[in-house]
Amino acid sequence: MALLDRPLTAITEADLQRLIDTGACETTVIDFKRETYGESERARKDFLKDISSLANTSGGDVVIGMDENGGIPTQIVPLTGDADQEVVRLDNMARSGLEPRLPNFAVRPVPVGGGYVLIARARRSLVGPHRVIFNNDAQFWGRASAGIFPLNVEQLRRMFVEGPNLTQRVRSFFQERLVKIGLDQAPLQFGPGARKVVHVAALPAFADDRFADIVSVMANGHHVPLPLFGAGPNQGAVNLDGFLNFHRGGLRHRDSYAQFFRCGVIEGVAGVRVDEPGMSMLGGPALVNEMIAAVRQYAQVLDHYGAGEPLFAQVAIVDANDLHLHYGYVNSGGREAAQRVSVQGIENIVAPAVQFAPADDAATVLRPAFNVLWNAFGLARCDMYSDRGDFAGVE
């Protein structure tokens, strides 16, 4: 048993007690410490070795305030003092003692009787490997069931190339999904007309099987991806790919859904309004606002379940041939009269995937992608941004 499938904010004393009751021994993803790391040089280096070894391998948690015997937890030994101050201290140690910095590291106090227990979580990192740089140390560490070990040259070489390989897997997944959506093999059947598509993926999820049972993962949290368009009533369903949340608009083919895949990808698709037979119409402001809101919400869902980072987002229009776009430039007095342009001879409009972190501003991140969509209609840039690149839409 481990804690990684539980969001940090959802872990309680009952979860910690369950580790003891089930005899959950130390593994590659969990380590128990009776006392917190001190200020000595050795203690600080031990802390950096522990969290970097987790990040460089499978990721995991250091549970601080748990006694163990032979790697098996025996009792909770509450920490006392200022919990927030201790969180800041450990976080600062991690920030200054590793190169490159850990992108998926967090420390959280769990209240228990008599004090608190600290959970230091280092998700598997794909921007590493990370090395300890404290006090002129330059060692890379990994973790196995028997403990931590120094990484050799071959292991380091594999880690350096793993990130780019996984990035290509993400892009390939996006492309395969667009093909299936175009063939009307999506989990929700749409009527005639174009479809808007948003994909958000957590890169670390492509490196392991942590999201294999997405329904069980969601049962431990309360965040659900929302359909790309529509504010309900939404319906949820379990399917072969994971969890589906969908909305039947019933008017002008505005159906939409959000599919949470087992591999850690969220897909949002919505039908484009059909004004008359054979004519699909996109409203520029609505398109941009909907996609920004979806990327922001999907990133929050993935972050809630500890999917890690970096994240990748891609926006696209499927079946775009003869699609019309209503747009209007933003000026200081408001929006000018909308103008209409169309695209012909292009089956799908696909913007390049963009990389970002959960804390990044979605509107800023997606600006290059929207420029590509507008370019497909013969426009120089997305008019929902000012000349300086400031977002001018409605959030």
Can you describe this structure?
The protein has seven helices and 24 strands. 28% of the residues lie in helices and 29% in strands. Helix 2 crosses helix 3 (83-97) and helix 6 packs across helix 7. The strands form seven sheets. Strands 11, 12, 13, 14, 15, 18, 23 and 24 form an eight-stranded antiparallel β-sheet that branches.
Briefly, what is this?
This protein has 395 residues and is of the alpha+beta class. The protein has seven helices and 24 strands.
Features:
395 residues, alpha+beta, eight-stranded antiparallel sheet, four-stranded mixed sheet, 7 helices, 29% strand
Q: Helix fraction?
A: 25-40%
Radius of gyration: 24 Å
Structural class: alpha+beta
Largest sheet: 8 strands, antiparallel
Number of strands: 24
Shape: elongated
Measured distance between first and last alpha carbons: 42 Å
Tally of helical segments: 7
Mean model confidence by pLDDT = 83
* Poorly predicted ranges: 329-337
Q: Provide the β-strand percentage band.
A: 25-35%
